[in-house]
Amino acid sequence: MAERGALWLLCLLCLTFLRTDCAAAKHVDKGSAAHPFSPFWFTVEPQDTLAVRGNPALLNCSAHSDGATPARITWKKDGTFMSLVSDERRRILPDGSLFFSHITHSKHNKPDEGIYQCVATIDNLGSISSRTARLSVAGSPRFSSQPSAATVHVGDSQVLACEVNSDLVQFTHWERDRRPLEPSARMIQLPSGALVISNASEADAGLYRCVVENVGPAKASDEAQLQTVPETGEERKLEFLVQPTSVTKVMGSTVLLPCAATGYPVPHIHWMVGDKLLEESEGRIKVVGGGSLQITDLVEEDAGVYTCVAENSNSTATSQAELTVQVPPKFIKRPANTYAHESMDIVFECDVSGSPAPTVKWVKNGDAVIPSDYFKIIKEHNLQVLGLVKSDEGFYQCLAENDAGNIQSSAQLIILDHDLALPSFPPPPSLTPNTTDHVTPGSGGVSGGAASPTPSAPRDVVASLVSTRFVKLTWRQPAEPHGELLTYSVFYSQDGASRERVVNTSRPGDMLVTIQNLMPDTRYRFRVVAHNINGPGESSAVLKVPTQAEVQVPGPAPNLQAVSNTPTSVSLSWDKPLTGNGDILSYKLYYTDRTVGSEQDVDVDGQAYTMSGLKKNTEYSFRVVANNKHGSGVSTEDVIVRTLSDSPSAPPQNLTLEVQNSKSIMLRWQPPPLSGQNGEIISYKIRYRKGSRKSESAVITAGTELYKLIEGLDPGTEYSFRVSAITVNGTGPNTEWTTAETFESDLDESRVPDQPSSLHVRPLVNSIVVSWTPPENQDIVVRGYSIGYGIGSPHSQTIKVDYKQRYYTIENLNPSSQYVITLKAFNNVGEGIPVYESTATRAQSDPDVDLYELFPAPYTPVPDHTPMMPPVGVQASVLTHDTIKVTWADNTLPKNQKITDNRFYTVRWKTNIPANTKVKMANTSSLSHIVTGLKPNTLYEFSVMLTKGRRASTWSMTAQGTTFESIPSSPPKDVTVVSKENKPRTIIVNWQPPSEANGKITGYIIYYSTDVNAEVHDWVIEPVVGNRLTHQIQELTLDTTYYFKIQARNSKGMGPMSDAVLFRTPKAESSDKMANDQASNLPPKLPGNHPPPDPGTPLGVGSGENHILVIVIIVSVGAFTIIVVVVGAFLCTRRTTSHQKKKRAASKSSNGSHKYKGNSKDLKPPDLWIHHERLELKPMDKSPDPNPVMTETPIPRTSQDITPADSGLESNPHLQQRRNSYRESVRNTPSTEPLPPATASSQVSCPSEILADPEGSYHGSSTTDEEPSYSSNLPPHRSAHPHAHAHPLKSFAVPAIPVSSHPSYESPALPSTPLLAQTGPPTHPHVVKTASIGTLGRTRTPMIVTVPNAPPEVPETSKMLEDVDSVLASLPPCPSPAPRSNPVPLPQSYEPDELTEEMAHLEGLMKDLNAITTAP
Fold it and tell me: Which residues, 6 or more positions from 318, have their beta carbon under 8 angstroms from its beta carbon?
């Protein structure tokens, strides 16, 4: 027995343990049996599609799901499921896409056009819906406008119209002469379909048409002939061919803002966004088609107001358009998959962005979620589900949509049994705080067995406090708690409803909870469940509690209507509120002027009221509140109504007249104040009359222009004008008559007036009478006078008076004060040069009587005692090379600087260049202004003036700004090319800087080539660094034509090239070198008067008659020379001591750097020179250009260009200098005499001329360009005057005698004039060319000098040469050459004693000459 009992006990224990393990295993399985979320989403969603009638179409859609449970695709059209079972045209493909075999579309039958959406469904799980897509069907092509024949100037723009259905523009293209036209940078197609042709050329002429293809049969517009005509240069008005229009585009797309203008000069177009200049960026933002703005890959920041600015040198035109960039919806936070228990509250979060702000709606299993007591939209877009039930399971989708597109995102809700724990990791992100308290970790929720008991039902559940919107519940602990830390859940629902909600206690042990957000006067069911560590226990009995009814104040009055009957009244009516406890005692009507914002109210007894005394054409909002014995009820929604418009009740403001010329007057004005407009101003009426006549003429402006030019008036006639505003209701009051008189004749207004010819002031005690006379130049328009005055400064006060006025009284001045007064004449260009006067007002004790008071002034404006303060803080911000933004502040405005009245500002600007006094002005109503069209690298001064009504301030302090540099816009000018003397393979290029350098020139590039038509990269380049204006090019080919161009550069880049300049190098070596070569081969000198071996070239005297004639000529010339010398010496001795000092000072400074351009007058040669052969006085040839302009930049020379000097001359450098100067001046003398040949000893050094000064001084003048020097200590020199003539005394040249003791060397030949007449041709004649100097593009013609062989040597001739050399050696040293920057050297001055000594030498020379000629 004992053994059997022990066996039974062991079996019982085994069964107990097995049951416990099975139960535990069962609980573990339940705890981990939560279904996983199903992988279910769309891989492809339909997109908006444009279909063609009769063609197939396809809307794509495909969904991803678990392979075991494939998704089933259905389609909705316009929100209704489509039945496609028996549809032959439409079917669903295996992947879920919707296919149309052919599109059906007609005027009255459009079965395929609409909004489509595909729905994917998994049976027993749920459904999801795709985004929506619109299927549009392209209509038949219809041309609302077609191209017409047009003419375009070469270089100008033209627009050919072609407008088709907006959905067919993408299928439109253009043809010229029936051939497709390829779009280019010059030709673009606008969004409307029109074609813009910019920078037209002759090749653009032809027949144009636009064609619509690929939407059925092709359809073409009418053909239009485009003709091109050459530009005549005649000015044409600047006007827009096409203007930008406001447009809305989606982010990421491309927009084209059209803008094209025509006129001459051809306008330039640039763009501004807001008040900033729009800078083009690589690839994304660029101007195409001559002016249209194209922006690709749009971003949200591209939105704004864009202004197309077309301008030329004559005028400027602007047009604005707003670009709106829409951003498709984008998810910031998507709804998340969620586990939950029944009766819990959950929230699906959904946060989206986009522009415009997207609208969000929720869908459950493909059906829209309708907000109710249990489904609520909170925090703008989140979905809250209260009191979950099992049927709430499924897929919830957040659908966001705006005008740019729509998107969707889904989340799955799975409701678990209460005995299954919610997954604790990751924590459910979408549970409410109440629900979170309900979730317990670990094994919470596991129903207990015998070893894990749960609490019994809570006891004595009662409603301790009941209100209209909440109930407070209390209870006692369960009889069997089975634990110490109990928590409680209160389940409640409306009586009769199946959906139950739950609220949890906040702390363990609490037995009190308040249920909020209940409905008034509604019965609710409550029950309480206790929880311990084993799970929820038994539920308490149901407690039914009704909430209290709310105090019944009236509800909103329905059907509130407001109608404006007159411009000043509104009639309102409404119905009695539907809810309310008791009778309505009264109504309170609230109304608000929406332009002001303050709300007012009025008590009303009935249900209708007429509100009067309102403002005309003004928006008002109205609302009504009903009152009963409990108080004020619920307000209605606001109703907005605008009172009717009326004719204006105020005239236009600030009417001004500007006389343009003898036949036209410009009128300008401002609109009436807003309070007096009473509606939209549609136009203005201008009435005017001549003089005092009663008959009037009327002109109505087009649109809302605030100016009008009245033309066809009589010259010198006074006209009166007045203006009135017009609305659709009628014409408003007129302004006062304002008069102006046309000019007697058309005057010049291209520059400012001259200075008034006189200004007189008469001071009194408290006033100063100012009188004046107009400028002497009556050909310039004067529109008025500006009087400035102040103590110590004339800029304190400024008064402007009419141009007819000649005097004015400045009043309200301080006694015994020193005032400075300025008077300036002005016109539309600006103010002229002022004239100043200073005076002091009289003392207080002086009588204040003035004779002017006896004569009444025709018109004297009274100065404003409280003048307006000028703008302050004026700043000039440089934007580009031609744009500066001017900003300022106005101390007469509030702190926020907001302008609420009709004031405006005048911005004035000019350059600081004294020669340019032109002033420009512009008006603006904002606190900034962008000034365009400025010159690059130029300093501008800006000032601002405030005008308000009839009052104006003085000009503000000036602000300065220097525009940025820009590349040179003009080429270097005056390009000349000359050959370098003695170096035929070397040329010298000279030029002048560009007229429009637009910055500091940093260098030049010289291009030269033998082919003028060669490509630029094939030309040879010679760079020039710095601002040098000359350059040498060496090693050129002889007898070759070269072409030269020059290009300037600055820090911004290279400017345009100059025109090609042609130059041909010499055929052979220079004539000077040839002369030297001939001199080296001369025959040996013969003794006596024997002729040379060549009998055909006699050099002696041919007969006695010729000999006598020569004697007569020499004697006459000698006598004339002595007379000239004596007269000069006499004049010199009569000079005063002061003149001697001045001359001495001039002599000391002659070696310095001077720029006395007037000395060119001193260098003018005498009008007579002696012709040796005929012994007569002839007038000299004057230079055609008395003041030639030389290139002032020297040509650099090196020591390699200096030829070694003759050793026989080095011992006496002054003699060498004088001799070379003497010979060089003779060489350049324009003479046709036969000359002896050059010798080996001839050379060139210091070129000078001996000129007789009227005051008795001598002047040395250079006449060569780049002549080489034979002494290293003598710097090279340049020509002082390219057309200077030699003095007649140089005709007494001495034949050069070859020196046998020295070898010959290359040097410029020494041309000379023989003393004895020649009877036959020279033995070895040759030609010497003088230097050619380029001056302003002109090249001096070389003078031809014939040089014969030298005559035989005679003792007398040798003696004469020695005398001449001694005279030259006794002369003062040759003055140093002028600096290279000074083209005109100073004349050399001499003292009287020196001149007397020189005269003595010359007299001795003449005696020797006479002795030679009289010898037998």
Answer: 307, 308, 309, 310
Length of the chain: 1416
1367 sits in which H/E element: helix 1355-1370
Structure tokens at 163: 């407008």
Neighbouring CB atoms inside 10 A of 1067's CB total 9
Residue 668: closest CA among 658, 683, 682: 658
* Residues paired with residue 272 on neighbouring β-strands, in sequence order: 277, 307
> What is the rounded CA–CA span in Å between residue 1015 and residue 1005?
16
CB 535 within 8 A of CB 439: no
| Residue pointed to by tokens 């809250």 | 384
Percent above pLDDT 90 for the chain: 23
Q: What angle do CA 681, 686, 692 make, to 5 degrees?
A: 150
Q: What is the pLDDT of residues 1293-1321, one digit of tens each?
A: 334 434 443 443 333 333 333 333 333 44
* Residues 1079 and 1237 sit within 8 Å (Cβ to Cβ): yes
Residue 1303 token pair: 């070898």
- Which residues are 667's β-sheet partners? 657, 708
Closest by CA position to 1384, among listed 1224, 1267, 1263, 1269: 1263
Exposure string of 1244-1254, with b = 16+ CB inside 10 Å and e = fewer, is bbbbbbbbbbe
Contact residues for 1154 (Cβ-Cβ < 8 A; gap 6+): 1378, 1382, 1386
The Cα 315–Cα 338 span in angstroms is 69
The Cα 93–Cα 85 span in angstroms is 13
Residue with tokens 């209260």: 386
- pLDDT exceeds cutoff 90 at 1: no
List the one residue out of 187, 185, 315, 317 whose CA is nearest residue 240: 317
Indicate the DSSP class of residue 1075. H
Give the range among 342-356, 1044-1058, 1123-1137, 1241-1255 with minimum mean pLDDT. Answer: 1241-1255
Q: Contact 794/822 with Cβ under 8 angstroms?
A: yes
Longest CA–CA separation in the chain, Å: 199
The answer to whether the beta carbons of residues 1262 and 1277 sit under 8 Å apart is: yes
Which tokens in the block code for residue 1236? 């002896």
Structure tokens at 1202: 């200096």
Report how far residue 580's alpha carbon sits from residue 575's, in angstroms, rounded to the nearest whole number.
13
The pLDDT tens digits for 501-525 are: 888 887 888 888 888 888 888 899 9
Read off the pLDDT band of 282 (50, 70, 90). Answer: low
Which residue in 505, 326, 300, 463 sits closest to 404, CA to CA? 326
**Residue 704 pLDDT greater than 60, yes or no:** yes
Q: Are 999 and 968 a contacting pair, CB within 8 Å?
A: yes
The mean per-residue pLDDT over the stretch 651-659 comes to 88
Average pLDDT in the 1351-1368 region? 43
Contact (Cβ atoms closer than 8 angstroms) between residue 419 and residue 444:
no
**Which is nearest to 727 in space by CA: 678, 656, 777, 797?**
678
- Read off φ and ψ for residue 623, nearest 5 degrees: -150, 155
Give 40: exposed, middle or buried? Use CB within 10 Å, 0-12, 13-18, 19+.
Answer: buried
Q: Which residue has the tokens 């600055």?
A: 1050
d(CA 1328, CA 1228): 10
pTM of the model: 0.40
Angle between helices 1104-1133 and 1392-1414 (to 10 degrees): 170
C-alpha separations of 1197 from 1004, 1220, 1277, 1339 in Å: 20, 20, 10, 22
CA distances to 275, 941, 1165 from 887, in Å: 11, 13, 62
Of 530, 527, 521, 520, nearest to 544 (Cα)? 527
- What is the identity of the amino acid at 279? E
Residue 459 has pLDDT above 70, yes or no: yes
Alpha carbon distance 1341, 1332 (integer Å): 7
Evaluate whether 1286 touches 1225 at the Cβ level (below 8 Å): yes
